[in-house]
Design brief:
The complex is a heterodimer.
Chain A (H helix, E strand, L loop, with lengths): L4 H26 L15 H7 L7 E5 L3 H7 L3 H8 L23 E5 L5 H15 L5 E6 L6 H12 L4 E7 L2 E2 L2 E2 H4 L15 E6 L3 H16 L5 E6 L18 H8 L3 H11 L5 H24 L19
Parallel strand pairs in A: 1-2, 1-3, 3-4, 4-8, 7-8
Antiparallel strand pairs in A: 5-6
Helix pairs in contact in A: 1-3, 1-10, 1-11, 2-3, 2-8, 4-11, 5-6
Chain B lengths: L4 E5 H15 L3 E5 L20 H4 L4 E3 L4 H13 L3 E6 L9 H8 L2 H4 L9 E6 L14 H6 L4 E3 L4 H13 L4 E6 L2 H4 L1 E5 L11 E4 L4 E5 L1 H16 L4 E5 L2 E3 L3 H11 L2 E8 L4 H13 L8 E5 L8 H7 L3 H11 L3
Parallel strand pairs in B: 2-3, 2-4, 4-5, 5-7, 6-7, 10-11, 10-13, 13-14
Antiparallel strand pairs in B: 1-8, 6-12, 9-11
Classes of the chains: A alpha/beta, B alpha/beta.
């Protein structure tokens, strides 16, 4: 796999952007500036960045309730993402979606669904559309280990398989469905093992290694683009935070376990690798971090200064036609 | 050139609408269980193989596995990325296995994402009792779809309306649930132009003019109401039958205008009574037309019990001519 320094540095920047974006919204949520529910993916950044870095312009993704990383990895404007979390008029969804329903069709981000497992049929639909329109796009579904126990997982993998659709099913196995450890609700060792049942390839990849994820995703994309059908890519990863902000995470896992996973931190790993390969210096790495911090700071400022939506806006956008 | 108007069955009118739209627009495609060759093409023979599978091929006439969540959800994003899928939910009763994709995904995609998505999909589905198909193949359920924001709900009663409304549904840019009553398919025939035409949503039809009581009814119940009208006419009672044709959007004005004229309202609704379509019409008239009324509104709907198997039991609960006649006479104190 040939990978330029610039591409790897871009991955580093994107992972860092996700980390800082989420660290910032965690604070803002605690202060009550962001309301509703907040599901963070801190620790999991290598998966969306590795996968989306393998995509081309025009490709599609569908996301879930833990979707900030998917958006940033696809290039959604962080200012408009932040404004969405603030519920402002300038948000990517005009303040109607919030953290769990981010979307930006202009970059192929077809939206996040907060019903666990519901987005897999949607990824299949994008894949079907690609096949019918005869383009060389691919469609990606991001979902968790918990979603792999939904019926939609079975229906979607099977449908994509029998029709050879260019769909990449990316399971972000972060070890827990809310508080339930994956080992308790799945008898096979890997989600990817289930691929066998659909006649598709199931690949397990180190989800804390962005370059490994990228490599596996690139291979999956090539296969999908050449008409060979879907693939199930399971990325073993870990969320450092709870299922949602405010959840009693200490009741279902230990601090030691978290610390163990943090040793594999995907951002530190890439940073060390890039420095060891002389792709950038400590100084340059710090410089990138400063730029990312500024980006997030500007995003917060933009969100704070943006106007609230007008109340009558609540009755718009149900239908293309004007009534509701 | 003179218009070519034929007598077509309800089913033939739907077949023609699908065919003409598929010929016109290559982004229109069909997806569902057993559409291709089963019963000649489609579980009710709506998509005969020689007109669909053989003509448009398996890419556009897609037989699916029994995976309603997957293919109905897939239709939503296929629609959002430039196509116009028409999917078939074989019996409306099956919505339970895929409702999330219908009401949380397809219906809300546009709103949740701030108007970015356009979801031009049609869910054709089969409704209604009358065949002793019992609890899982006889319900109407259109009220459930109407209750959820983001779905347009079409309930045609004649071949002419079925064709025009289905073409409108396919061309509409929002998700549409198109309900086909199984009793209408072969038994109801009517004039249908061969030419392509559309009927706008939200425009009710005055099926029969009358002076004494307004009867609002949909789908197969329109025909029951027409039979009831003939019976009542012998007793000197004249009912006006309004068919809203679409429940979402609903032509409130046509109903109010009629009630203003007759001062009495009976709603005939094959769906369950509680919180249903009849209740909606009754509440609209109560809110906006109360002073037109000189008698209480009467709902004739299916009571809140599952649809039973035995023909005797099924007949006991489904609205029919006798129940309509009795209700009309009751509010007229006759």
């Amino acid at each position: 796999m040939e990978l330029s320094g610039a591409k790897m540095i871009d991955m580093y920047r994107k992972m860092l952007t996700i980390r800082h974006f989420e660290s910032e919204v965690k604070e803002l949520f605690a202060k009550g500036k962001i309301v509703g529910a907040l599901h963070l993916s801190i620790g999991q950044e290598a998966v969306p960045v590795g996968v989306c870095s393998a995509l081309k312009k025009g490709d599609y993704i569908v996301s879930n309730h833990r979707g900030h990383g998917h958006c940033i990895a696809m290039g959604v404007d962080v200012k408009r993402m932040m404004a969405e979390l603030f519920g402002k008029e300038t948000g990517v969804c005009k303040g109607k979606g919030g953290s769990m329903h981010l979307a930006d069709f202009s970059v192929g981000m077809l939206g996040a669904s907060a019903i666990v497992g519901a987005n897999m049929p949607l990824a299949v639909g994008a894949g079907l559309s690609i096949k019918i329109r005869k383009t060389d796009q691919v469609s990606v579904a991001f979902f968790g280990d918990g979603a792999s126990n939904q019926g939609t997982f079975h229906e979607s993998l099977n449908l994509a398989a029998i029709w050879d659709l260019p769909v990449i099913f990316v399971c972000e196995n972060n070890q827990y469905a809310e508080s339930t450890p994956v080992s308790k609700v799945m008898r096979v060792k890997n989600v990817a093992d289930r691929a066998l049942a659909y006649g598709v390839d199931g690949v397990v990849v180190d989800g804390m290694d962005v370059l490994a994820v990228y490599g596996a995703a690139l291979e999956a994309c090539e296969k999908a683009r050449s008409g060979k059908g879907p693939i199930l890519l399971e990325c073993k990863t870990y969320r450092y935070m709870g299922h949602e902000e405010g959840d009693p995470w200490i009741t279902y896992r230990s601090r030691e376990e978290i610390e163990q996973w943090k040793k594999e931190d995907p951002i530190n790993r890439l940073r060390k690798y890039l420095i060891s390969k002389k792709m950038f210096t400590e100084n340059e790495a710090n410089q990138i971090e400063e730029e990312v911090k500024t980006l997030i700071k500007d995003a917060v400022k933009f969100a704070e200064e943006s106007p609230w939506p007008k109340p009558e806006e609540a009755l718009r956008d149900v239908f293309v036609s004007s009534y509701y | 050139m003179a218009e070519n108007i034929r007598q077509l069955s309800f089913k033939e009118a739907i077949t023609e609408a699908l065919m003409q739209e598929m010929e016109r627009d290559e982004t229109v495609f069909l997806m569902g269980e057993d559409l291709g060759v089963f019963y000649g093409g489609g579980p009710f023979g709506v998509t005969p193989a020689e007109k669909f599978l053989k003509k448009f091929g398996p890419e556009r006439v897609r037989d699916t596995p029994i995976s309603e969540s997957a293919f109905i959800g897939a239709a939503a994003t296929a629609a959002a990325t430039g196509l116009r899928p028409v999917v078939e939910l074989m019996f409306v009763d099956f919505f339970g296995v895929c409702m999330d994709q219908i009401y949380n995904q397809a219906a809300k995609m546009r709103y949740m994402f701030g108007g970015q998505a356009k979801v031009p999909m049609v869910i054709r589905t089969v409704i209604g009792a009358g065949f002793s198909f019992a609890a899982h193949h006889s319900q109407s359920l259109y009220s459930i779809f109407a209750h959820v924001p983001g779905l347009k709900v079409v309930v045609p009663s004649t071949p002419y309306d079925a064709k025009g409304l289905l073409i409108e549904a396919i061309r509409d840019d929002d998700p549409v649930v198109f309900c086909e009553h199984k009793s209408l398919y072969n038994t109801v025939k009517g004039p249908v132009p061969e030419a392509v035409y559309t009927i706008p949503f939200g425009k009710a039809k005055v099926v029969r003019e009358g002076t004494d009581v307004t009867v609002v009814s949909t789908a197969f119940m329109v025909h029951k109401a027409l039979n009831a009208a003939s019976i009542l006419e012998k007793d000197g009672i004249s009912i006006e039958i309004i068919d809203p044709r679409t429940i979402v959007p609903l032509d409130k004005q046509a109903i109010l205008d009629s009630v203003k004229k007759t001062s009495k309202l009976v709603v005939v609704d094959e769906d369950y009574e509680r919180c249903g379509f009849a209740a909606e019409v009754a509440s609209i008239v109560s809110e906006e037309g109360l002073y037109y009324l000189d008698a209480p509104i009467k709902r004739i709907a299916t009571p809140n019990v599952p649809i039973p198997y035995s023909p005797v039991l099924e007949k006991a609960i489904i609205p029919d001519e006798e129940k309509i006649v009795n209700a009309v006479k009751q509010i007229m104190n006759r």
